Amino acid sequence: MNKVKINTEIIKLDAFLKWSGIASLGSEAKIYIQEGLIKINGEICLQRGKKLKIGDVIEFENEEFEII
């Protein structure tokens, strides 16, 4: 599992995808989310603005990213 440190209490899903390197552009992040390719804590998430917090686990292409 990859650990990703954020500098704030919360981060929006689309911003996290860019911050962690999953997506290089906001438009790319939007497509991943709209196509149901992103899971948060085991559940598919279709909300670009979903607020993530420390401890959340994001899954993309069988890779997991934990926010620390």
From TrEMBL:
Keywords, sorted A to Z: RNA-binding
Q: Which PROSITE patterns match?
A: S4
> Which CDD domains does the protein's record reference?
S4
Q: Which Pfam families match?
A: S4_2
One Gene Ontology molecular-function label: RNA binding
Q: Which InterPro entries match?
A: S4_RNA-bd_sf
Chain coiled-coil ranges: none
Q: What is this protein called?
A: Ribosome-associated protein
Q: Which organism is it from?
A: Clostridium uliginosum
* Organism lineage: Bacteria, Bacillati, Bacillota, Clostridia, Eubacteriales
